[in-house]
User: Fold this.
Amino acid sequence: MFVGHFAISLIGKRLEPKISLGTLVLASMLPDFVAFVLMIAGIEGVRFKTGAAITSGMRAIDALEVSQSSYSHSLLMGAIWGGLFAAFYFALRGNKRGAWLLFAAVLSHWILDFASHPPDMALAPGLSARFGLGLWNSIPATLIFEGLFWVFAIIVYVRVARARNWASHLVFWIPVVILTLAWYGNIAGPPPSNLSIIGYTSLTFFSLAVAWAYWCNRLRPVVQNVR
Ligand SMILES: [Zn+2]
Assistant:
């Protein structure tokens, strides 16, 4: 998933306002960050499907397949990355509830990718079985399920974290539009011509997204007593 992971972060802010939205985005996207680093290192990656006819108008998700992702994206590794992240947060902040929520946010990445990916999600490194419900195979179904989840999360977030001025509105809404367009490009757009730079470009894009989320967290304080 894409905006679905950001939706988890926005809802997480409602559940535990003490965690920065930036930390929540980092947690819900952590397996992807690990994957980008491992892609740059040449350990994980995507490739053009072998044996399939690649035509010019093809969507990226039809033309590409995962060559290796079980260190970043298997269920077991999700639990390990989540445990490490939560332990680090707990050591820094001493917030037990927040640490559990961050663990759940990291683990939710596997569940959402399992729903959206074709069967390429492993349970643990070294196990050959792959799972995935393939929501992303259907653009309309993705727009409905992931899109509605995204809209729902945005509503939950803006009700609890209020903008103080017009600048806070712009800082939130312009990147929300950019993320939504990038998501649509991911599900409907063609594959990039150069696969070797995906790790670098994605790492840059999503690092900016995390920085943006920390910024939003400062600009939009949580109001108490939201029902
Ligand atoms: Zn992922």
User: Anything to note?
Assistant: The mean pLDDT is 94. The radius of gyration is 18 Å.
